[in-house]
Amino acid sequence: MNQVFPKILVISRSVWDDSKGTSSTLSNIFCNYNPEQLSCIYIETKKPNTKICNTFFQISEISLIKKIFKWNTKTGQEINSEYIESDSLAKMEASTMNYVRHHRSFFYTFLREILWAFNGWKSKELKAFVKKVNPDIIWADGSPLILMNRLSKYITKLTRKPYCVYEMDDVYTYKISNHNPFRYIYKYFLRKNVSQLITNSSQLFVISPKMKTEYDEIFNVNSKILTKGIDYSDKEFKPYKVVEPIKMVYMGQIIYDRLSVLQELGKIIDDINVNSKKIQLDIYTNNHIEEEIKSSISRKGNVKFNEPVPYDMVAKVIDEHDVVVYVESLNKQYEHVARLSFSTKITDYLASGKCVLAIGPKNIAPIEYLKNEDAAIVANNYDEMRRILVADNLPKLIEEYSMKGFYCGLKNHNKKDIDKMVVNILMDLNK
């Protein structure tokens, strides 16, 4: 079956790394492909770590800076098994760009866009790579960066082949909480590029039902909802008895004020555990947290901070707990972050057969989805969170929603069904 699949060229900002959640969706979508029929262009200065795709082209943003002063500088290269990431140049590039990307400042975003506006990335090496891989279809990951949308448009015009766009965040609407006028100006130009890319695409994929509703109306298209798929071929729901202490776990980033929600959750658990230990919460995150804050949250021993575990260990950790906690900030300043999104963690949580406790505003896509599907215990504010946790029927509720979540995943995120949809679309585009 792999031999008849069209050749796909993926355009993605991040390096393809099967051990990272951000790339696991890409690997999940294309895991049944022949790696020889996949290629990828990306701009992160790291070596790929995947068995799904063998052929890569890396655009170096450090080299784009150098090219301003020395025009014959190469700005891109094909990455293969001989590429050595550990040399001094690669280390310097990775260190510099990691700082820029993780320092969430609009100033750096503005500088990056100016850098890309010089078009030094439009190299003969890039053109030669695209000609060499000769794709049948382009797969463009959506991005909140103008530069990535420009790159995708350039490749699609270069190849003149049908292409798909996969949007995973709200990159188009003005429904943002930050009223910085420069951000609105930036969004104006981003919207122009996004609109051009989507309007001329052959198929739009979106990450959530809420995004489908809005984007179908905006762009007059019939988008397809595409999430990470769950392989149910060897899964069956296993009921479990909940006894005290109820074991809860949070796994993920605590950026965008999510830590405040976990902090409040910890306070409620502290209140509940005054006479006996009824609930315990484990937190796994790779984000830095000040020791003083950690100590404040965990001082009574009901909340424990753990070292992050590799992605392939996540399922084991979840299996050792009764409840998986999913959190989005309740601060209005951050509501826009996940307004139309759908975290890859959600499908992992549903697949686990464990109860999901979802905390967040009711009008954002992931919370709205879990509520509408009745797939999780949902709290939209701190009062609801407290009422849920102090309820006498909490163990029974956990047992009930562990089953509801599992079968929601089976109904809506079965990998077999998702693979069939994607393959049928790609095959039709290649006719």
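(ticket continues) Second input and output from the same batch:
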Amino acid sequence: MGVQRETTPVRVVYVTGSGRSGTTVLNMVLGQLPGVFAAGELRYVWQRGLAQNQACGCGLPFGDCPVWTDVMERLGAPDPAIGRRLLTRLRLLRLPLLLARRSAGLPPVPAHPDDVAIGDLYAAIAQATGCRTIVDTSKLPPYGLLLEQLPGLEVRVLHVVRDPRATAYSWLRPKATRDAADTPVMSRQELWKSSLLWLVWNVLAAALWRAPRRGLRMHYEDFAQRPQDTLAQVARFIGADAGALPFTGPATVRLRPTHSAAGNPDRQQRGEVRLRPDNEWVESMPVWQKAAVSALTVPGLALFGYTLWPRALSRRRAASGGGS
């Protein structure tokens, strides 16, 4: 069948930042809007979907999902090895080269034969679903730069930031996954690794996509405490109808199944879902862990408005109602 590119570009809402920042539920809520497709972490579709046949957000194996079957048929015979090559092209060690190329006025991510297939993927999704806006929660800033280089895509960047103590605590907790029988638990990250990755990816995203000219920044804490107002701002930013957000109450939404290709297993939630802050870390995280994360992320804490001591931060945000 093949992918026929159209003159109207496909709008990609690229969600960047670090993992465990609430982007899964954000993706699901935005996917309820008319004309918006919640794709999940699309940089993994080649590996986890095509090669490993992990579960779609609808609950079916990737190869049995009618939406992804249609998308893959439009692509022809996609190469699952694209995923492995992408991981190599976008790894952290290549970051200095990426920044050097960008400062020299060159495309940050060197062109590659796979780029045609990657661009075709977004076009095929738009054609198979009838959605002109695709939410991609891949988060990795270098992949966002790659997408900006591809013809036929209009990229809008949404930078989601969460307190690094909260994300580090989340990475330490075991979390069940329903993606595949041989991977019952999601991978975990050690404290030092999750902290440094939080710092690198968030600071890099802030530098590359300065709000409000090149993107929108959203704090998880604002999203959790004031979901309607925060999501209405996001909907307007991506060009969607904020009045169509699926709220059934001040902090509850009704979710239909989405077809997120990869990401947190919570993407398979459906029905009535309450949006509430996940603050377990404030009381349960040992003091030494909070102190270690704070020390490793000091520059980012200052940049994004977080205080060194999280209890003070929690009280201040609760009293003020948050703020982006």
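Agent notes: The two ends are 45 Å apart (CA to CA). The longest helix spans residues 191-208. Closing as not reproducible unless the customer responds.
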